[in-house]
Amino acid sequence: MRYKTLSGKEIVDLDSGSRLGVLGQTDIELDEKTGQITAFIIPNYTWLGMKKEGENLRINWSDIQKIGEDMIMVNRLPPTK
What is the pTM of this model? Predict the structure, then answer.
């Protein structure tokens, strides 16, 4: 899958149902050796583009549950035993 295909999709948390961001407005963390995506980094900005207090949100590639036509669904919670 190409990044162009992923760009513009909303990232949604399955647990809370909340919108975390839009891919394309995120940074990508790559493994330098393999070139594979390891995580998406969602910057903590307001709608005016000003930096808010707090840390950026990191979504690991392994947290992705499903990539749909319009959104990427992630589960950031550890699995229950």
Answer: 0.71
